[in-house]
Amino acid sequence: MDTRKLAYFVQIVDSGSITKAAAALHVAQPALSQQVSALETELKQRLLIRSKQGVQPTAAGHTLYRHAQSILRLVAQARVDVAKSGAAPSGRVSIAIAPYSMASSLTPQIISEVARRYPDIVLHVTEIYGGVLSEAIKNGRLDMALIYEPGPIRGVLFTTMIVEDLHLVVNAARPDVNAENGEITLEEAARLGLFLPEKIHTLRQAVEAGYDSKGLKLQLVGEVESVPSLTRLLRADLGATILPKSAADALFHEEDFDVLRIVDPALQCKIALCTPDHDPLSEAASAVLLVLKEMLQEMLNDKYGRS
After folding, report:
1. DSSP 103
2. All residues at 6 or more sequence positions from 114 whose CB lies less than 8 Å from its CB, including other chains
3. What is the pTM (predicted TM-score) of this model?
4. Is the pLDDT of residue 46 over 70?
5. 157: which residues sit within 8 A by CB, 6+ positions away?
6. Are 256 and 179 in contact (CB under 8 A)?
7. What is the rounded CA–CA span in Å between residue 193 and residue 133?
8. How confident is the model at residue 307 (pLDDT cuts 50, 70, 90)?
9. By CB distance 3.0 to 4.6 Å, which of 55, 164, 202, 272 could disulfide with 148?
């Protein structure tokens, strides 16, 4: 099995059409079809389902697609590493950082420090909740992530870095919420309608698990993943939300809002460093990972006075 066949196969799946893939690759369509047939013969599996609408991978095709992406990425990285052996780390490194978390405040410092140490590395930073990123990590579309820890996922490794208490954020003008001691029981919080991210997100799952543990019903007003929209909705007193303390303080620090620690029981979320558990990181990604770990440790030292 040569890498050219794998590259052709990945292009076909990405294009959803052999005709479109042939045009993108500048290869004759019959020749491309022959390459797919050769792969199917070699693997003794049907890889694509052809129809008038295009092509879709079979279950075996999905498996090959995933492995082919990893193989092609490793081959490309090997070429880059060999060509630049002995030089300073360079290239593109992609990081996802969970929004509404303490970790998101690190973005400017991460970019600044990487630029200072490794001027030839280009950082691609995005914000994501984490419930859907395992495939992106495994396929190499993301090098690493700082996200809400969802629990074990095959193909990725989570290293817990930060544990945060969850807090209720509510309009300060609500007469039915007592904010004097800075706390609210989960049962009291359950009387309020909430704006939360959709069910695939770990933050939502942590809230639902807490409600289930007390036999409480979640009153969901709406699913919101936009910070400006969430702020406007709470300012209009259309509902409340639940966030980690650091995010709540950063987003809702005005006097218009009360930020109350949830107790009985307390709810927590974990921010973890997510990396692939099977493929080695590139030289550039390894360098960025080291910077990221150093900055997280410094942040924890400042917050908790660790030495």
Report:
1. G
2. 93, 121, 123, 287, 288, 291
3. 0.63
4. yes
5. 274, 275, 276, 277
6. no
7. 29
8. very low
9. 202
Strand partners, 164: 269
User: Are the CB atoms for 143 and 93 separated by under 8 Å?
Assistant: yes
Pairing label, strands 268-276, 144-148: antiparallel
State pLDDT tens for residues 191-218. Answer: 999 999 888 888 899 999 999 999 999 9
Q: How many CB atoms lie within 10 A of CB 57?
A: 19
Smallest Cα–Cα separation from 98: which of 289, 227, 282? 227
For residue 94, what are the β-bridge partners? 124
126 closest CA partner among 148, 104, 153, 109: 104
pLDDT tens per residue, range 65-100: 999 998 998 888 888 777 766 678 888 999 988 776
Contacts 24+ apart (CB under 8 A), 297-303: 299/102, 299/106, 300/161, 300/162, 303/102
Residue whose entry in the numeric block shows the structure tokens 């590493």: 81
